[in-house]
Amino acid sequence: MALPRRAAVIALALVAGGAPAPSRVAFELPDRDLFPEGIAWDRARGTVFVGSLRQQRIVARERDGTWRSLGDDAALGAVLGLEVDTERRALWAVHCFAAPGEGPALLHDDPARRGETGVVRFDLDGGAVTAFTATPAPPGCLNDLEITRDGAVVVTAGDAGLWRLPPGGDTLAPWLRDAPGYANGIASTADGTKLVVAIAERGLAAVDPQRPAWRMLATPAGAELRGIDGLVRHGDDLLAVRNGTDPAAVLRIVLGGDARTITAVEVLEAGHPRHAVPTTAAVVDDALFYVATSQLDRIDRRDGSFDPTTLVPTTILALPLHDDARGAGGCLHRR
User: Fold this and answer.
1) What's the DSSP call for residue 214?
2) Predicted local distance difference test score (pLDDT) of residue 63
3) For the chain, which ranges sit under pLDDT 70?
4) What is the pLDDT at residue 17?
5) What SS3 state is found at 69?
6) 3-class state of residue 249 by DSSP
7) pLDDT score for 287
8) Are 290 and 319 contacting, i.e. CB atoms less than 8 angstroms apart?
9) Residues 6+ positions from 150 with CB-CB distance below 8 Å
10) How far apart are CA 107 and CA 84, in angstroms?
11) What is the pLDDT of residue 7?
């Protein structure tokens, strides 16, 4: 993604050139200038949430295909990572007022709030909205987030590391500094005892919430785990959206015991014709819904402007996750 700094694009050969892309279009969003980044799913109601980097709101698509908007009165900046806490019936969103050119120009910018970043909690049943501002603010934007088993909110902050909002707390503060690179996507392991963080320039790192420290995980030979943006758990595995490579790809990552090793990396899809800087993903029933067209490559890095005539439909793709769909787009790398 472009609001935080992206890793240099790594050119890769398509492993399975000519193989049909297994994804289908789940839906297209109404506005081409949405510039989506985060996506989340409320399994209780079947609602898919998509955040906008430009329009400072969250678009909700209901199970019946109707649309509504969240955050219009929440004074949001650019909306980045999204996560639904199903148990506590809350939608969490990261937002940021970045410097000009660090993303698409905001629809309603507020120069007085430049550098402000934090998380917002939306009560999915009662409708209440609660904002938490990062104190102190990291040098850039907060980015993605994960809800731990005890209800803590852990947020990536690029090179600055991880910020944390404790369960029931009101202070979003630094938790683990000195990241080994640019901390981007984040997900919990299946047993909830570890956090896995995508480090843009290096691959994946594991963090034990009980004894917070960075531990890089070795990447299997032949696999490429640099340039990962979105990271989400599916069963015992992790699914990743990698946009720091050419072509962009969706990966399945198999962790070893106690999340100390990566035992396999499978390319589920690469170079889909709809890709225009894919970003993050959410598991929806038996498919991975992911943002295929953030269109961050259309933005002028000098001021955040863009040419509307170059924009394509804002598309969410659905990648089947049942066993017979695995391997349709790439190959498997094992340790």
Assistant:
1) -
2) 94
3) 1-21, 323-333, 335
4) 40
5) strand
6) strand
7) 97
8) yes
9) 167
10) 25
11) 46
Angstrom distances, CA of residue 8 to CA of 67, 205, 221: 36, 19, 21
CB 197 within 8 A of CB 156: yes
Q: For the chain, first and last CA: distance in Å?
A: 29
Cα angle 249, 250, 256; round to 5:
125
**Residue 291 and residue 37: Cα distance in Å, rounded?**
7
Of 248, 238, 157, the C-alpha closest to 204 is 238
Q: What per-residue confidence (pLDDT) applies to 18?
A: 39
If you search the block for the tokens 């040419």, which residue do you land on? 307
280 closest CA partner among 331, 317, 325, 330: 317
| Separation between Cα atoms, residue 181 and residue 156, nearest integer Å | 11
Q: Which of 108, 98, 190 is nearest to 149 (CA)?
A: 190
- Residues 250/201, Cβ–Cβ less than 8 Å: no
Q: Report the pLDDT value the prediction gives residue 13, as an integer from 0 to 100.
A: 45
Tokens of 332: 């498997």
**Cβ neighbours of 63 (radius 10 Å):** 10
- Cβ atoms of residues 251 and 226 within 8 Å: no
Strand-by-strand arrangement of the 183-188 sheet: 183-188, 195-199, 203-207, 215-216
- Delineate the domains of the chain, giving CATH numbers in brackets: 10-334 (2.120.10.30)
pLDDT of residue 12: 56
- DSSP label of 225: -
d(CA 84, CA 200): 24
**Starting at the edge strand that comes first in sequence, how are the strands of the sheet with 162-165 ordered?**
145-147, 153-156, 162-165, 173-176
pLDDT at 74: 79
